[in-house]
Amino acid sequence: MSHPDAVIHDRATGVAADTVAKHAEAQPLVFYAGWFCPFVQRSWIALEEKGVPYQYKEVNPYKKEPHFLAINPKGLVPSAEVHGKALYESLVLNEFFEDFFPDAPKLLPEDPVEKARARIWIDYIAKTIVPAFMRLVMAQDPAEQSKLLNDYYDALKKYAEQIAPGGPYFLGPKFSLVDATIAPWVVRDYIITEHRGYTRSAAGEAWEKYSQAIETRDSIVNTASEKQYYAQIYARYLKNEAMSEFAKALRQGKSF
């Protein structure tokens, strides 16, 4: 029996399709991706920011083919294959790219204190902001939706308080892995605007300005497909019918 989430458009579209086409040739680093996945996008953004060679390979993680399972036993995207070795987990991959491409633009600060601080806020995004966003998307009861919307605003305000004065990015003028980590949920916030009453302005001026800077960044624009192709996927989340590993973990009150 096929996975209920397996029926999706089979490739990136729009500007993202152009980015895929530029990375079709074989390279030492193979990036296994699903165009629709926000976890993929955060690592894809990092690759594009670094401007390094990689081969993009589209996979449907809900159709677990043998070679892909060999690359990632969890059968999840993103994954990478480097010199015949498998790597996975988006935040691990982003740090790996920093080490594997030492001459490429750095996305973490050189200063150890600032680097540690960046990692603290990456962890906050992963453990607080992303789950809060998805719980809001999946909530069905109006009263629960209202509570979760306020929880999401609180999480965003706490983050926005830490944005460097003058921005436009979290650490200041330079884009970093902190920004790459949160960006996919910034560009998907139209979903909760249309269906859950969210507005950026309600999270404060700092968040609103930051969001605008993020959504117009080239690496983010160039890794986003056309909105209509996301609709089928998020319709299942909005009905709390999605069966992704992330959705199942949230229902069980677990982190992902």
Indicate how many domains the architecture comprises.
2
CATH class of the largest domain: Mainly Alpha
Strand tally? 4
The radius of gyration computed from the alpha-carbon positions, rounded to a whole number of angstroms, is 18 Å
Q: Overall pLDDT, averaged?
A: 93
SS-derived structural category: alpha+beta
Name given to the CATH architecture of the largest domain: Up-down Bundle
CATH topology of the largest domain: Glutathione S-transferase Yfyf (Class Pi), Chain A, domain 2
Helix content: 40-55%
Sequence of secondary-structure elements: HEHEHEEHHHHHHHHH
Number of helices: 12
Domain GST C-terminal: 111-246
Organism: Exidia glandulosa HHB12029
Domain GST N-terminal: 27-105
Keywords: Oxidoreductase, Transferase
Describe the structure.
Helices cover 52% and strands 7% of the residues. It has twelve helices and four strands; from the N terminus they run H-E-H-E-H-E-E-H-H-H-H-H-H-H-H-H. The protein has helices at 14-21, 38-50, 66-71, 90-100, 112-138, 142-160, 177-186, 190-196, 205-215, 218-221, 228-238, 245-251; strands at 29-33, 55-58, 79-82, 85-88. It has a four-stranded mixed β-sheet. With 256 residues, it is α+β, with helices and mostly antiparallel strands. Helix 2 crosses helix 7 and helix 5 runs antiparallel to helix 6. It has two domains: 14-100, Glutaredoxin, CATH 3.40.30; 112-252, Glutathione S-transferase Yfyf (Class Pi), Chain A, domain 2, CATH 1.20.1050.
